[in-house]
Design brief:
This protein has about 290 residues and is α/β, with parallel strands linked by helices. About 45% of the residues lie in helices and about 15% in strands. The chain contains eleven helices and five strands. It has helices spanning about 25-30, 45-50, 60-75, 115-125, 135-150, 180-185, 195-205, 220-225, 225-250, 255-275, 285-290; strands at about 35-45, 90-100, 100-110, 130-135, 180. Strands 3-2-1-4-5 form a five-stranded mixed β-sheet, sandwiched between helices. Helix 10 (about 255-275) packs antiparallel against helix 11 (about 285-290). It is globular. The protein starts with about 25 loop residues before the first helix and ends with a helix.
Length: about 290
Amino acid sequence: RNPKNFLKISWKNINRSNLNLNFNFMNDFFNSNNFLVFDIETIPDIEGWRKLHNLPPEMSAQDVYEHAVKIRTEENKSNPEFFPHFLQKIVCLSYVFRAANKFALVSVVSPEFDEKTILQRFFKGVDTKPILISWNGSGFDLPVINLRSMIYGVSSQNFWNTKDDFKWNNYFSRYHFRHTDIMDVLALYGGRANAPLDDLSKLCGFPGKLGGMEGSQVFAAWLEGKSQHISNYCQTDVLNTYLMFLRFARFKSEINAEQEHNEHLFIKNELNKMIAKKPDDTMHLQEFLQEWKI
């Protein structure tokens, strides 16, 4: 999907000082914070593996992948099909941006945008100083983003900030909330209690993953040219993550049950607006709303 033809938000227009704060509910919650709920989808970095192992350029992507799996199997890797973080190529970034009366659901997806541009778009959002929200973002998404940014020489003004109010609450310290990895926090930072987003979302009454796709199927979809499917899958993940964040905020008594319900209605209304504008491109959102019973 081309974000130019979808719901694109200009980061320069969402600084807190520019926001219209006339909204109907959850005033204090959104008045004091901008929220950026994000998720990435990755595939094995075929060209990276090719370069590291001096494989010929005429070798197909599938053959390079099979070579990698063979080598990693011989090295007794526990999951040879799953490449290390630095060899995870980002092909999609999806995010929900929420502040005051503003809501945006956006995907930046390859091949329309290359990986460097995807990374730059992420950090452009971070430079507006939002609260970052993720599910396993500390364990996967952010380490991948950091490592891939090193490869491309991407810069960020605020991600590594430790000055002023960032000193005791920054993006990269595990026990700070400026980046809230909901999975990690709920497990009390102990991996043995980590819960899958899909399962816990469904138990909480949310749609969970739809369309029969999961993370392990992204590479196959990519090889088949199904970038649209990857984008749709990633978008439903960030929607589930945002709903889980609201439930977590209720758990912490930052919002109450009525406020959570009102926000659910607001989200549904915003998604319906998107569907009305692009009905043929938003079948995944229509399915999401059909599965979401409130």
